[in-house]
Amino acid sequence: PILYGYFRSSCSWRVRIALALKGISYDLVPVNLVKDGGQQFSAEFKAVNPMLQVPALKIDGITLSQSLAIIHYLEDTRPNPRLLPQDPKKRAQVRMIADHIASGIQPLQNIKVLKQMGEKKTEWAQNCIASGFRALEQILQHTARHYCVGDEVSMADLCLVPQVANAERFKVDMGPYPTITRINKALLELEAFQVSHPSRQPDTPAELRA
């Protein structure tokens, strides 16, 4: 498999965690979203993903974009360890939380949107994340035990950790979100979350390396 990604992209990080958990080795093609005006806009990358976004994964003779679609494919073809519970209610809760983050929070504070916000970008990102986290904290109080849904790592957790990292980068006060904070801390103790961390990628700048 070949993963096109960027060390700091939270969507790329979700996929890196899934690949690590499932023990899938891959080659990385770094796509720097900032350098040269954004390498995602190159003709070469447009041929890989016309949406000009990372991640993209070449695997099994196909090219997939959109992090959750990639994770669903990995789950369908390489089901161990599973990232979606077998119980239909828990499975729906995992998808709900993953979508809450992947559709309701992350796109509102990604690079493309923040460029449009100019000087207000930090305030905008903080407000978008805080609004989403207020709802998420409430949801997790009903679904969480050790992790987002029960005691097994799921696709929801793969979305949570990168989003908390974004919150910390934009200096969001995490005080009002004790459940999110607790789960994030527990997940960061797991090897798959550590090896996939933005501070430990081949394209991580020296000053940001762990």
Which labels suit this protein?
single chain, 210 residues, alpha+beta, Glutaredoxin, Glutathione S-transferase Yfyf (Class Pi), Chain A, domain 2, 4-stranded mixed beta sheet, 9 helices, 4 strands, GST_Zeta, glutathione transferase activity, Maleylacetoacetate isomerase, EC 5.2.1.2, phenylalanine catabolism
Structure, described:
With 210 residues, the protein is α+β, with helices and mostly antiparallel strands. The protein has two domains: 2-80, Glutaredoxin (3-Layer(aba) Sandwich); 88-193, Glutathione S-transferase Yfyf (Class Pi), Chain A, domain 2 (Up-down Bundle), CATH 1.20.1050.10. It is built from nine helices and four strands; from the N terminus they run βαβαββααααααα. The protein has helices at residues 10-21, 43-48, 67-77, 88-104, 111-117, 121-143, 155-169, 178-187, 191-195; strands at 2-5, 27-30, 56-59, 62-65. A hairpin with a 2-residue loop joins β3 and β4. α1 (10-21) packs antiparallel against α7 (155-169) and α4 runs parallel beside α7 (155-169). It starts with a strand and ends in a 15-residue tail after the last helix.
Briefly summarize what is shown:
This protein is of the alpha+beta class and 210 residues long. It has nine helices and four strands; from the N terminus they run βαβαββααααααα.
Give the N-to-C terminal Cα separation: 26 Å
Strand content: 5-15%
| CATH fold topology of the largest domain | Glutathione S-transferase Yfyf (Class Pi), Chain A, domain 2
What's the total helix number?
Answer: 9
Strand-pairing-aware structural class? alpha+beta
Total tally of structural domains: 2
Question: What is Rg?
Answer: 16 Å
Q: Tell me the number of strands.
A: 4
Task: Detail the poorly predicted runs.
Answer: none
